[in-house]
């Protein structure tokens, strides 16, 4: 048996897989950050989770900031996973493809840094925009390739 | 090296890749719509984002409507991406597979139209249901094929 | 045409596809559970959805509990889909890979059971942790393999 829908350069697949796994780990870290904030602020989302001295609340600014960053990852990184995967089948140059995969990983990490760790609106916005338009570029390439 | 887990018809992969990229672009547009609503209603989610005359709020009906539509996309389109991909390996007929991919893309676009642009409960519900049960159908086919 | 980026054992792909489809179906069920709760509590999220005797609200504890479980699925299962897929290309042993796929599916189902059906903090936390660290383990293997 062999898959018959196209060619992918091993170097391109290597870069995609490596940076996709890095981004998945980055997303998993968001759950840890949420848990740390919940523990330190003693703010929980289910009655059965509440620790002594804690409370159920959905408006703690620090907890909600991490959750917004996490949701932003879901809105942007999860579609990127399939877009980046399919983009490999559009015969991109190895140089362009590998660097776009690196770029998306870098700006999605910096997005979290500038949203949660050191909130800076300008840099967070720039990080988001670079990831957004890189993903859009890849998606448009897929649409044109498979038209 | 070759991937050895099954056969995919090029026409099926072409349809999957094309419509998956269209749906990814559709999802990206939700972020733009959210940003436009935030700008026009001057309602922001982080203190550092607030523009002159604006405020931080999480209950603006227009902003939240777009965000609900966006979350609905995440709940439905993101699982569909992997389900549609794996469905290709169940030896579906080219006619059925390509048309199911088109159908899911069409109803997920109409879902957003009837949720955000022209709110009509009945048509939005129908769009959601067609996408939902088509995805469920594909997932059941995968389960039966790889049992 | 053939895909040229690596070998995947048919038994590993079979296990991945089967359990990924099961998990996708499990996620789809969350939408049904949300709808059932909305109907029984008569609590809706859009003005145009409200049935006679119902209201728009975003703080019903039963509805919001299902929605939190659904979001937790999106945070954990959706990244797992790509991580599990790429993990297949790291030449894992058939025994380890197939059992990890089964494990993730089992604990993500038990997570929902202990969050929504029979809320038990301890068992829900354990289910979450096993799925989380299994996904992290696979992601680290991918990073090391494609370094």
From TrEMBL, chains A, B, C:
Protein name: Microsomal glutathione S-transferase 1
E.C. number: 2.5.1.18
Subunit text: Homotrimer; The trimer binds only one molecule of glutathione.
Function: Conjugation of reduced glutathione to a wide number of exogenous and endogenous hydrophobic electrophiles.
Record field: catalytic activity: RX + glutathione = an S-substituted glutathione + a halide anion + H(+)
Chief location of this protein within or outside the cell: endoplasmic reticulum
Keyword Isomerase among UniProt keywords: no
InterPro entries (UniProt xref): MAPEG-like_dom_sf, Membr-assoc_MAPEG, MGST1-like
Keywords, ordered alphabetically: Acetylation, Endoplasmic reticulum, Membrane, Mitochondrion, Mitochondrion outer membrane, Transferase, Transmembrane, Transmembrane helix
Cellular component, GO, one term: endoplasmic reticulum membrane
Single Gene Ontology MF annotation: glutathione transferase activity
Entry's transmembrane regions: 16-36, 77-105, 125-144
Localization in the cell: Endoplasmic reticulum membrane; Mitochondrion outer membrane
Pfam families with a match to the protein in the record: MAPEG
Protein family membership: Belongs to the MAPEG family.
Domain of life: Eukaryota
Ranges in coiled-coil conformation: none
UniProt membrane topology term: Multi-pass membrane protein
